[in-house]
Amino acid sequence: MKKASIGLGFVSALAISAPASAQDYSGVTVEILTRPGPVIAQRLVERGEEFTAMTGAEIRVNEVPFAELFQKILTDWATGTNSIDVGVFASGWATELVDAGLVE
């Protein structure tokens, strides 16, 4: 499954204010994998809580050390496990993920 549209949709939803009639996504869970820290992971947690309040979708932010991040994303997506819906990773890794057909 290609992850780009899911990730972009989530990030876009977090970046804008809630429309007056936000859709109901109760029962939907979005799994995000990123590195730990207040700059990225904590902001995703905070915005995820806002997104949950707007839509009912549960946002789970999972943290792994930066040194493990690329391999975990690559393995999950390449094997079709797809337990990671959104990967927040270094932009330089995008080329390899695109070349592998894992994001578009």
Write the layout of secondary structure elements.
Elements: H1 4-15, E1 29-34, H2 41-55, E2 58-63, H3 66-78, E3 86-87, H4 94-99
Parallel strand pairs: 1-2, 1-3
Describe the structure.
With 104 residues, this protein is an alpha/beta fold. The chain has a domain at 28-99: D-Maltodextrin-Binding Protein, domain 2, CATH 3.40.190. 44% of the residues lie in helices and 13% in strands. The longest helix has 15 residues, at 41-55.
Strand content: 5-15%
What is the spatial order of strands in the main beta sheet?
Answer: 2-1-3
Q: What is the name of the CATH architecture of the domain at 28-99?
A: 3-Layer(aba) Sandwich
Number of E-state strands: 3
CATH topology of the domain at 28-99: D-Maltodextrin-Binding Protein, domain 2
The global form is globular
Return the average pLDDT rounded to an integer: 87
CATH superfamily of the domain at 28-99: Periplasmic binding protein-like II
Order of helices and strands: HEHEHEH
What are the segments in which pLDDT stays under 50 over at least 5 consecutive residues?
Answer: none
What are the key terms here?
104 residues, alpha/beta, 3-stranded parallel beta sheet, globular
In short:
The chain is α/β, with parallel strands linked by helices. It has a domain of 72 residues: D-Maltodextrin-Binding Protein, domain 2 (3-Layer(aba) Sandwich).
